Amino acid sequence: MFVFDQVFDENVSNEQLYAEAVQPLVDAAFTGIKVTCFAYGQTGSGKTFTMMGSQKEDQFVPGMFLLAASEIFSKIEEQKWNLTVWVSFYEIYCGKLFDLLNDRKILFAREDGKQVGLGESVECVDRGTVG
């Protein structure tokens, strides 16, 4: 048996999907909750388009990442908060975990009974550690 929070058909726009499924995660993050936006599906099902968006000829369609980042940094700027934003960008493919912010370096998920972590950390040039 599978349980879903929401299901969207092929006619939903990225903006509609963002408003329904991702924007509440952004709000939750600002209350101190750790959030994850996860896309799952078979090859060719639209995950990359949905998450990354697309630019074709004169039409730009923003993806979930751009919409979320825009809202996050707008909120920080509006409130004049001094916050550090931590971002991870991973791909799980054929049972392997790749760090997409570090040249697709293979990572290893670790669990010690108390928490799950990753076997790699990435040093960002001017913002500190990301990972």
Structure summarized in a few sentences:
With 131 residues, the protein is of the alpha+beta class. It is built from 3 helices and 9 strands.
Shape, please? globular
Largest sheet data:
3 strands, antiparallel
Give the rounded overall mean pLDDT: 83
What is the CA-based Rg, rounded?
A: 16 Å
Q: Please tally the helical runs, counting DSSP H or I stretches of 4 or more residues.
A: 3
Looking at this protein, list some descriptive labels:
131 residues, alpha+beta, three-stranded antiparallel sheet, two-stranded antiparallel sheet, 3 helices, 9 strands, disordered C terminus
What does this structure look like?
- The protein has 131 residues and is of the alpha+beta class.
- It has helices at 14-29, 47-52, 64-79; strands spanning 53-56, 59-62, 90-93, 96-99, 105-107, 109-111, 116-118, 122-124, 128-130.
- Helix 1 crosses helix 3.
- The longest helix is centred in the first third of the chain and has 16 residues, at 14-29.
Secondary structure topology:
Layout: H1 14-29, H2 47-52, E1 53-56, E2 59-62, H3 64-79, E3 90-93, E4 96-99, E5 105-107, E6 109-111, E7 116-118, E8 122-124, E9 128-130
Antiparallel strand pairs: 1-2, 3-4, 4-5, 6-7, 8-9
